[in-house]
What does this fold into?
Amino acid sequence: MFVTTSERDYFYRANLNFIEALRARKIWVDTLIYSRRSVNTKHTWQQDDSHPESQEVYRRLGAFVRAVAPRAVAAV
It folds into this structure.
């Protein structure tokens, strides 16, 4: 599971609780959590790719998917 959040997000506490619950169940969780100092990270911030923080989310998401997804098998 890959979870992103920010102290500026309305669901910050819920996201932290979600991460904790997943880990308590031994589910591997990769996180990207921004502090209040990151001003471009209010709720739905990931959807605006003009922000460096959002760009980092998409870079990390891509890396996460590549790490967990099986490789495609070449057609014969």
Notes: The helical segments are 12-24, 52-68. The chain is about 40% helix and 15% strand. The chain has a mean pLDDT of 89.
